[in-house]
Specification:
alpha/beta, globular, binds pyridoxal-5'-phosphate
Length: 491
């Protein structure tokens, strides 16, 4: 993580005034500094990795501080505000829910929970679905892992292993971290002592098997990963479930469909369950409601959807003879675009494994949160924001792709689907990610009125609210280009 971004030394800016961007103070704004300092005194340094912007108001695709600055938001508050910040219909739903004077119900039946769950079950591509609500994404991940282990245990007491992909991210609670493969130190986890195993992710930008390009090799990639486990003496029969991000948050491209098909076929054959973590890629972010809908296309999306064929029911696609559908889907973030709501959707027989009282959460399905989430799902549908994500994303991707030819030494790839885009930077002459340059570009963009987050992994993420106007998205893309030019010049 770049230290420059967390520094509270104000850096002078050139005044920016466009229809959407307004920068009128140094960054961080001098008046914000004492408050950010006070915050740092009372919360751990783990919270200090983001640009030092004191958020005051966020509306649609714009974020404002209280000192006259306004940004085009490419973060969506960490890929959350799919419908836009503070959407009036979501605000209204929250207002009505609070005026109802029903602020918490725990697991007692409530109308808002009923309505949201009915909606989720109707959206689910999984036949005979039920769903359960939680607050954070990681809680929902945790629930899916627990369900997979319980399902496995019914087959054999030792069938409790969880398989996941290196580099995917599933949350911060213990089991979610066990399944994650993010670069933070994970030694303390001792993953394999608790039956969590990882195989390499099918990331064609950093092929774990040294290939230079994708050659319909997803099936081999999956099985080669399993072989590494077998070679280490791991009994695959003990694996109860496989969790993966169908469109990983950091590559922003769908995993190869043949990898997913092989994983699905293997899971079926092994009597183990498959869970899709759609916390980040779900709810319209990628131009389809579920990220998994992309798994019928080639991994390098080039706008060619000709090999997509409709599944007989539900939005998931058929891949060759394998009808593709996970057993569990985990949603969060864009499920409400606002208050904390997450969910696990899955086959009823799996969700019904825990007995009454064994799977619940105090705040899960909170009536105000449920009302916000339901309003959000209606907004995504009524305002055709999923289609907008696909349309706007495709145009922005085309604009950003020109960076590959303009800066071939520094830009390794620009890729993604819908408004789930990423720009991967490399150190010249290598394929090593250029962490410093990526963070410097994000920092400069913030000083020019485009809000980005630093990733510390050598890529820039372009994930605005799906309601962003095309002209604003293209303006932000042009700012990134200027910042990249500047970053390379001053490197
Ligand atoms: C794919 C994925 N899974 C799980 C999580 C964890 O969600 P939360 O931060 O709401 O616990 C995240 C959050 O970034 C995520 O991107």
């Amino acid at each position: 993580m770049s230290l420059g971004m967390t520094s509270l030394e104000p850096i002078a800016t050139t005044t920016v005034r466009t229809r959407w961007r307004r920068i009128v103070t140094p960054i961080p704004a001098p008046e914000s500094i004492s408050r950010i300092e006070r915050l740092r005194q009372v919360e751990p340094q783990s919270m200090a990795g983001m640009p030092p912007i004191l958020w005051h108001e966020a509306e649609g695709f714009l974020v404002r501080d209280a000192f006259g600055n306004q940004w085009i938001d490419l973060t969506s508050g960490i890929v959350l505000a799919n419908a836009g910040h503070a959407h009036p219909r979501i605000v209204q739903a929250i207002r009505e829910a609070t005026e109802q004077r029903l602020l918490a119900t725990y697991a007692f039946p409530s109308e808002p929970r009923l309505r949201l769950l009915e909606k989720l079950v109707a959206l689910s591509p999984i036949p005979d679905s039920k769903a359960i609500l939680y607050s954070s994404g990681t809680e929902a991940t945790e629930c899916s892992l627990m369900l997979m282990r319980r399902h496995g245990q019914r087959i054999h007491p030792e069938k409790v292993g969880i398989l996941s992909l290196a580099g995917n991210y599933h949350g911060r609670t213990l089991a979610a971290q066990l399944a994650s493969g993010t670069p933070q130190p994970t030694d303390w986890i001792a993953r394999e002592r608790v039956d969590h195993f990882q195989i390499p992710a099918p990331n064609c930008l950093a092929c774990p098997w040294g290939r230079t390009h994708y050659e319909q090799c997803g099936e081999n990639c999956f099985h080669a990963g399993l072989e590494t486990l077998v070679a280490r003496g791991i009994d695959l029969d003990r694996i109860a479930g496989l969790i993966l991000e169908p469109v990983p948050g950091w590559t922003t491209v769908p995993i190869p469909s043949d990898f997913a098909a092989a994983a699905s076929a293997w899971a079926k054959q092994q009597d183990c369950l498959l869970a899709f973590d759609e916390i980040q890629c779900g709810c319209g972010r990628t131009g389809t409601f579920f990220g998994g809908e992309h798994l019928g296309v080639t991994p390098r999306i080039k706008g060619d959807r000709s090999n997509l064929c409709e599944a007989p029911s539900g939005p998931f696609r058929k891949i060759g003879p394998v009808p593709f559908c996970p057993d569990l889907i985990v949603l969060g973030k864009g499920l409400s675009s606002s208050l904390p709501v997450s969910a696990v959707i899955g086959r009823a027989e799996i969700l019904d494994l825990p007995l009454p009282g064994e799977m619940s959460s105090t705040h899960g399905g909170n009536p105000v949160c449920a009302a916000a989430s339901l309003a959000n799902l209606h907004v995504l549908e009524d305002e055709e924001l999923i289609e907008a994500s696909a349309r706007t994303g495709a145009t922005v991707l085309e604009r950003l792709r020109s960076l590959e030819s303009e800066f071939p030494d520094h830009v390794r790839a620009v890729q993604g689907v819908g408004l789930f885009l990423s720009i991967h930077l490399r150190q010249p002459g290598t394929n090593t990610p250029d962490v410093q340059l990526a963070d410097a570009v994000a920092e400069e963009a913030v000083r020019r009125g485009v809000l980005m987050f630093t990733t510390g992994r050598g890529y820039l993420k372009f994930t605005p609210p799906l309601c962003i106007e095309l002209a604003a998205a293209l303006e932000a893309a042009d700012v990134i280009r200027d910042c990249l030019t500047e970053g390379i010049r001053t490197k």
